[in-house]
From TrEMBL:
<keyword id="KW-0132">Cell division</keyword>
<dbReference type="InterPro" id="IPR001986">
    <property type="entry name" value="Enolpyruvate_Tfrase_dom"/>
</dbReference>
<dbReference type="InterPro" id="IPR005750">
    <property type="entry name" value="UDP_GlcNAc_COvinyl_MurA"/>
</dbReference>
<comment type="function">
    <text>Cell wall formation. Adds enolpyruvyl to UDP-N-acetylglucosamine.</text>
</comment>
<keyword id="KW-0963">Cytoplasm</keyword>
<keyword id="KW-0961">Cell wall biogenesis/degradation</keyword>
<feature type="binding site">
    <location>
        <begin position="22"/>
        <end position="23"/>
    </location>
    <ligand>
        <name>phosphoenolpyruvate</name>
    </ligand>
</feature>
<feature type="binding site">
    <location>
        <position position="321"/>
    </location>
    <ligand>
        <name>UDP-N-acetyl-alpha-D-glucosamine</name>
    </ligand>
</feature>
<protein>
    <recommendedName>
        <fullName>UDP-N-acetylglucosamine 1-carboxyvinyltransferase</fullName>
        <ecNumber>2.5.1.7</ecNumber>
    </recommendedName>
</protein>
<feature type="active site" description="Proton donor">
    <location>
        <position position="121"/>
    </location>
</feature>
<comment type="pathway">
    <text>Cell wall biogenesis; peptidoglycan biosynthesis.</text>
</comment>
<keyword id="KW-0573">Peptidoglycan synthesis</keyword>
<feature type="binding site">
    <location>
        <position position="97"/>
    </location>
    <ligand>
        <name>UDP-N-acetyl-alpha-D-glucosamine</name>
    </ligand>
</feature>
<feature type="binding site">
    <location>
        <position position="343"/>
    </location>
    <ligand>
        <name>UDP-N-acetyl-alpha-D-glucosamine</name>
    </ligand>
</feature>
<feature type="domain" description="Enolpyruvate transferase">
    <location>
        <begin position="7"/>
        <end position="423"/>
    </location>
</feature>
<dbReference type="GO" id="GO:0008760">
    <property type="term" value="F:UDP-N-acetylglucosamine 1-carboxyvinyltransferase activity"/>
</dbReference>
<comment type="similarity">
    <text>Belongs to the EPSP synthase family. MurA subfamily.</text>
</comment>
Length: 436
């Protein structure tokens, strides 16, 4: 277990270049399995989860070449599908959440796909029903080995397009079904589809490979299956969750930071939501400029004067992956805010660490926490903590950077899952952080 030691209380200053988006990269990497031609991908983030998925692809027989920083080519012309039934795959496939998305492309192209129960954050129940119900609707047979927690779908006669109304707008579920449907016979309609920028990017990539998809960006996708897909070049968008993390870090450490080339048009409600906490976010071309909040920031109230409430929702709502960061930033705001994490039932438990540091938070129930901001009248106190999940991890890191004294964060592998060279990049803008 690796550890960060952080000397808090320093104002930071400088420019940050956001990494490529983790959750988009995981979808895009799985899509390389859909063709025997070469796929070139730019802006792949160098993070643990993505590297684990690249290893799985390599073990599946995908020919992978690193062409430059963040740029790779992939060729899936001679796959070793026996790997899917190996003990090694049972280990490796369960190491991250994103691995679940190899099932759709394998089912679409080869008529079978298998996966052990995938890993990822332990932030509440993370069902896979949407994925498998979608595959079954397309004509696949489903089996599940309870003892081994191993899932399988097979469609020896191929998949057939159909209409489906998803029970929930699952991000990875929609991606999986879209990839399978791209090679199914006939037309598939997916209603209540997730439409995060990750999915819009996946659909655009598939179209450039020869897929026929209408409704990109909406919750109704119409996919007309084709016989085969070809190669393409795709560039991953900047990571909107990382961008939100930098906004929170800048405000809470009273730092002046410019986040470069953020792709503003793909940030949805992220700037608006941070502004609800009173944070100044200026648009400069495609950059975000955050001035040093020397006098703090004040939570806005609703028109009727009622207490501010920030909650998550499927896109174009506010992403659940930034609520932990909003929560930590609120601990130093002027005013109070109710944080409502609707999707995941154990993502707010990390607040006990913040309470330990002196933050005023009432955990109302597993989904809701009220934060009463300090308005910087009292600094958080340094402490020793363990990072429970990726976003709680970065939130604790932000808390430690703003706190008085030296904090220690264990289990930082959680942060490394989704943040590229976080300590190196923080040091460049003046943070005192050491990896032990
Ligand atoms: C690798 C990856 O891409 N991971 C992301 C993906 O996970 P993932 O695709 O696993 O998440 P899902 O979209 O399937 O669902 C997330 C959770 O939200 C609940 N749910 C979902 C949709 C809905 O309309 N109502 C509802 O309650 C689900 O029951 C589940 O508990 O999407 C999540 C939701 O944005 C993000 O937190 C994860 O970072
Ligand atoms: C929950 C997340 O990731 P994963 O789905 O990979 O666990 C996240 O990125 O915040």
């Amino acid at each position: 277990m690796a550890t960060f030691q952080i000397e808090g209380g320093q104002a930071l200053k400088g420019e940050i270049q956001p990494q490529g988006a983790k959750n988009e990269a995981l979808q895009i990497l799985c899509a390389v399995l859909l063709t025997n031609e070469t796929v070139k991908i730019n802006n792949i983030p160098d993070i643990r989860d993505v590297n684990k998925l690249i290893d799985i692809l390599s073990n599946l027989g995908v020919k992978i070449q690193k062409l430059g920083n963040g740029t790779y080519s992939f060729k899936s012309d001679e796959l070793n599908l026996d790997y899917l039934e190996s003990e090694q795959f049972k280990q490796e496939g369960s190491g991250l959440r994103g691995s679940i998305m190899i099932v759709g492309p394998l089912l679409g192209r080869f008529g079978r796909g298998y996966i052990p129960r995938p890993g990822g954050d332990k932030i509440g129940r993370r069902r896979l029903d949407t994925h498998f119900e979608g595959f079954i609707k397309l004509g696949a047979e489903f089996r599940y080995n309870k003892e081994e927690r191993f899932y399988g779908v097979e469609a020896p006669k191929g998949l057939k397009g159909t209409f489906m109304l998803l029970e929930e707008a699952s991000v990875t579920g929609t991606a999986n079904i879209v990839m399978a449907a791209a090679l199914a016979e006939g037309e598939t309609t997916i209603y209540n589809a997730a439409c995060e920028p990750y999915l819009q990017q996946l659909c655009k990539m598939l179209v450039s490979m020869g897929a026929k998809i209408d409704g990109i960006g909406s919750n109704m996708l119409k996919i007309t299956g084709v016989k085969e897909l070809g190669g393409c070049t795709h560039t991953i968008l900047p990571d909107m969750v990382e961008i939100g993390s930098w906004i929170g870090l800048a405000a809470m450490t009273k730092s002046e930071i410019t986040i470069k080339n953020v792709s503003w048009d793909n940030l949805g409600l992220i700037p608006t939501t941070f502004r609800k906490l009173g944070i100044t976010i200026e648009r400069k071309g495609d950059d975000i400029y955050i001035p040093a909040h020397k006098n703090g920031y004040e939570v806005q109230s609703f028109i009727d004067g009622s207490i501010m409430n920030i909650s998550d929702a499927p896109w174009p709502g506010f992403t659940p992956d930034l609520l932990s960061i909003i929560l930590v930033v609120a601990t130093q705001a002027k005013g109070s805010v109710l944080i409502h994490q609707k999707m995941f039932e154990s993502r707010l438990f990390f607040v006990d660490k913040l309470i330990d540091m002196g933050a005023k938070i009432i955990l109302c129930d597993p989904h809701r926490a009220t934060v009463i901001g300090h308005n910087f009248e009292s600094q958080l106190k340094a402490t020793t903590m363990t990072s429970p999940d990726i976003r709680a991890g970065i939130s604790l890191l932000i808390a430690a950077l703003s706190a008085k004294g030296t904090s220690t964060i264990h289990n930082i592998e959680q942060i490394d899952r989704g943040y590229e060279d976080i300590d190196g990049r923080l040091k460049k803008i003046g943070a005192k952080i050491t990896r032990l």
